[in-house]
Amino acid sequence: MPLPVITARGLTKRYGSFTAVDGIDFDIAPGESFGFLGPNGAGKSTTMRMIAATSTRSDGELSVLGLDTNRHGPEIRAQLGIVPQGDLLDEELRVIDNLYVYGRYFGLPRAYVKARAEELLDFAQLREKRTARVDGLSGGMKRRLTIARGLINNPKVMLLDEPTTGLDPQARHVLWDRLFRLKEEGVTLVVTTHFMDEAEQLCDRLVVIDKGRIVAEGSPQGLIREYSTREVLEVRFGSARNEAAAGRLEGIGQRQELLPDRVLIYADNGEHALQEVVERGLEPVTSLVRRSSLEDVFLRLTGRSLVE
Ligand SMILES: Nc1ncnc2c1ncn2[C@@H]1O[C@H](COP(=O)(O)OP(=O)(O)OP(=O)(O)O)[C@@H](O)[C@H]1O
């Protein structure tokens, strides 16, 4: 196994008496696409800020590219690409100038920045918007520009905090496609998200994080195999009848979850489970069989949903 690019042991962040990140361990390998999946407030952004060396840890160890984050902040940041949760672009400047300004901020040579900015315009599919002001761009375009800006120093490791939050489905797919390209080029991606589909799309490996602690680790498919069944049957009986109906489903499938608006039945064969439901004389208003997802893994591990 090649040396990890990021290693954390007992990584902890306290704000006063509140512990936001509670002694987590992880290793991220070069070229890997690694995710932190968890709900709002789980401690994902705090972890990212410590990796980016913009926040000091309270305890434990953290090294990025072989350097201690508490002692080598500037050297680490010079080698990382950082895409924060908000875009933080210069809204009144033109697209191309946002790239120039950021490159100069890094102290990169002018000629290098000029050439790199042109490459990145193409990468971000913003060639036609080259001289447009940022405040007129769509959300998806701004996000792509933020990613392009983060790539100005040609980093080997890219940190992306909630990369597609707030974007519509089409813009998310365009963005994922750009991130796949970076991955193909060998860039290590470190992604936080509370979207299970994003984690399934982007991550080779991820940790599920809740209340500052890692509750599971693995590949998306591996986690689903370990913590869920192949399929899930979702049945709705109407809000007044869900609970009563759920009480009569015992023994169907391996496990059941009662949610406010539906009952989830975990079974390897969802259609068989549905037959059993019907054979018991229960008539769902709607029924749906789907594959298990990371949302099911999270529900199983924490008893809660990823997106509240
Ligand atoms: N500067 C701070 N001072 C005090 N508490 C903080 C500070 N920053 C974060 N927290 C708290 O730490 C916890 C973890 O926050 P964090 O932003 O890391 O979560 P998150 O998983 O990234 O969620 P989100 O997606 O909402 O950012 C939250 O309860 C938050 O209120």
UniProtKB/TrEMBL annotation:
It is found in: Cell membrane. Pfam families: ABC_tran. InterPro entries: AAA+_ATPase, ABC_transporter-like_ATP-bd, ABC_transporter-like_CS, ABC_transporter_ATP-binding, P-loop_NTPase. One of its GO terms (molecular function) is ATP binding. Keywords: Antibiotic resistance, ATP-binding, Nucleotide-binding, Transport. It is a peripheral membrane protein. PANTHER family: ABC TRANSPORTER ATP-BINDING PROTEIN (PTHR42711), ABC TRANSPORTER ATP-BINDING PROTEIN NATA (PTHR42711:SF5). Belongs to the ABC transporter superfamily. This is ATP-binding cassette domain-containing protein. The lineage of its organism: Bacteria, Bacillati, Actinomycetota, Actinomycetes, Propionibacteriales.
